[in-house]
Amino acid sequence: MSSVIKAAVRTANITYAVRDILLIANEVAKTGKEMLYLNIGDPNIYDFAPPRKMVDAAYDAMLKNYNGYSPSSGIKQALDAIARDAEKKGIKNIQDMFVTTGASEAIDICLTALVNEGENVLTPTPGYPLYTAISSKLRMMENPYYLNEENGWQPDIEDIKSKINEKTRAIVLINPNNPTGSNCSKETLEQIIDLALEHNLVIFSDEIYDKLLFDNKELVSIASLNQEVPVITFGGLSKNYMVPGFRIGWGVVSGNPSRLKEYLEAINKILRSRLSANHPEQYGISVALDGDQSHLTEAMEKLHRRRDITVEMLNAVEGISCVKPEGAFYAFPKLDIKNSDNHFVAELIKETGVVVVPGTGFGQVPGTNHFRVVFLPQEEILEKAYKAVGEFFVKYKEKYEK
Known about the structure:
This protein is of the alpha/beta class. Helices cover 40% and strands 16% of the residues. Helix 8 (186-199) links the parallel strand 6 (168-174) and strand 7 (202-206). Helix 4 runs parallel beside helix 10 (283-290), helix 5 (102-114) crosses helix 6 and helix 5 (102-114) crosses helix 9. The radius of gyration is 21 Å and the shape is globular.
């Protein structure tokens, strides 16, 4: 007699709201309703394209039959380009670098090599759900710290201080932040460095959107501020170079070498055991990082307009407030409602076909409700979607919160 094959306990709490919400959206789409998708940060779905020379470099590598395994840490010309890019950001005292299957794999490997079951890592809330998914897989204890919405979504330093305990191994930064679009100030970063040094913590700095900044803002890379503190800076081609499907990311390890030696050996054990990242596409890295950046100028012109439309139209709705994003292509508006954001978003999709992601999928201060929007779509799509959100919000309050 056959019995049910049980799933591993470690998967019980793994969720990914960005795609999970499609379970509702797909059912609505079957009814024939027009759908307006503002849920996934994929530039290629819209009017963004990668630099042609970068794509050609990867294609040429395939034609030259560079289709076998690469060195575990990546090919030399890619690593050299990553080092140059890090140095442009002011990162010194680099101890190691490695190319991975997207920045996601780099994050997974570095967490796996550091954190034991029952230990914890401070993760930003709101933040990208990958970190909590990996935490669940590794049987880590959750330890979220909050971003302060009243202070432009900067990390709440006092909250971080209160959350550090004897089992804490690292602090995660997402800068610019997904889902809020915030950009950390130098003052905030310096305070985080002080805490990391005091408590012997590694800093994971996820800077995958580091070239997508608005209003002439600049990103301060936390690793550039101190050569002693152990930092792993994550980057990749996905967002800045409009190729999320390439699945090419990397990590740059900097800091005191004597403190990092054992940890780096563990990272490299995992890198060797999984063989390599995609080989031919690594030939696009140097072309991207060292080459013409004009695609970024064009992209930021579009995104600037779309950011402004997003902030203006959502803030015009009484009961919705939206902090202006300083980077990336996300906003995280706040809802003045009594019900949950899960309920609001589900009803929004059913009624209007506008697909956004509930704030609970990214974490938020208890008692608050938010949703995330991706403002990659063309202006006319965003205007239509936000008009529908505003009209629906009025109906929602009348129907459910009288």
